[in-house]
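Support case: user asked for a sample of complex input and structure output to validate their parser. Sending the pair below.
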Amino acid sequence: MLDPQLIREDPDRVRASQRARGESVDIVDQLLAADEARRSSLTEFERLRAEQKAIGKQIPRATGDEKQTLLSRAKEISAQVKAAEAAAAEAQQRFDELALIPSNVVVDGVPPGGEDDYVVLREVGDKPELPTVRDHLELGEGLRAIDTERGAKVSGARFYFLTGVGAQLELAILNLAIDTAIGAGFVPTIPPTMVRPEIMRGTGFLGAHADEVYRVEADDLYLVGTSEVPLAGYHSDEILDLSGGPLRYAGWSACYRREAGSYGKDTRGIIRVHQFHKVEMFSYCREADAADEHERLLALEEQMMAAVELPYRVIDTAAGDLGSSAARKFDIEAWLPSQARWLELTSTSNCTTFQARRLGVRERTEHGTRTVATLNGTLGTTRWIVAILENHQLADGSVHVPAALRPYLGGRELLKPVTA
RNA sequence: GGAGGCGUCGCCUAGCCUGGUUUAUGGCGCCCGCCUGCUAAGCGGGUUGAGGGCUCAAACCCUCUCGCGGGUUCAAAUCCCGCCGCCUCCGCCA
């Protein structure tokens, strides 16, 4: 949700943002009109209400004829107040509904355009030169690490078992991620992965991508697609003290995604699955500090990429490909040798005050309270296994273990295929 | 799943039965000031949040806010209904 005051005072900025995203520009004028209607009906209600209260105050003191006069006048105004209140509530509701429509105002410098109009900020590391290229599933099966057949048998398409070194490798990635986060001052957090509707709505996931989300109907709860959701809800309706700097959390959780509408895409292996694990960074900070915090999250992601020794590039996502909550988004894509393309491994978004406003997260300042900014970023996921296996494969199907992961894998330097 | 209790401005708490002079009481904490070699104590004042009006901005004014949402009434923290959350006990399960 945008700041109503911003819409009122600088509608052109909102229009420009909507235009850059390729979304409705007219909505701004609809909002301005609805805001005008809302305020005028509110003023009318408040005027009548004040009058009603003034009369009500005189009634207990009055007697006889005077009291009867006051009572009849009170009765009259009571009906007027009721009508004015209903009108004001209706205007407010109309405004609230419209206010949810515009996406976040993009940060200056975000490339305009759609999915393919991203800007590559940098490319780091060399793509491996491989004599033979096996894809991650072939490698994973050879290592007895990934079993998608049994995953499908037990749970259906896009489910899998990680076994042996596969399970250990996932834990290694996630442990390295959480240790990195702790080292950077994040509070390690294991959040609930089922949340109430208002939390899911507040984070903006029930908008355009609502059919991506699993819903547990019997209990009216949603399964989260990322721990961003419970971490954003963690401080909902709270007033924070950010005088000591941003509040930073690193959530470790299972993530669930329906992947509706992605039929036939990434069907092989574990690139696109219904359930995976992720360590996610989440920061609450002052809006003025949000851009710096975004760079900090990106730097930590790059630190992780270096640690797992993957060639990658950083892209600045174009306006039209941002989620509705994000004002800017950087993705890190690792090289995927089997398909000779880049594969998204992390994504970090600056949501500015968009998410926090919906969730009622504010901070105390000298002059009152104000909405904070929220940011999130990936520090490790199950998908990283894909890039690690493929980039570090050797000719015989064994896989070199990056030094940073070895402590989490019993010191092993090499994962070898199971021949038996 | 069953029974009972509770939800008041950061924390604790009065008010609810018996609706209106309540601008929601008092304490703690916190902030400002006074006093005092310093500190503590003492004294005085301030201290929920949201929205709107006026304004360059403030001061100021108004409305809403006693878990949430309805209802009754001229008038609701107070009466009625529904919901949510927490606690205790019982049952069931791990």
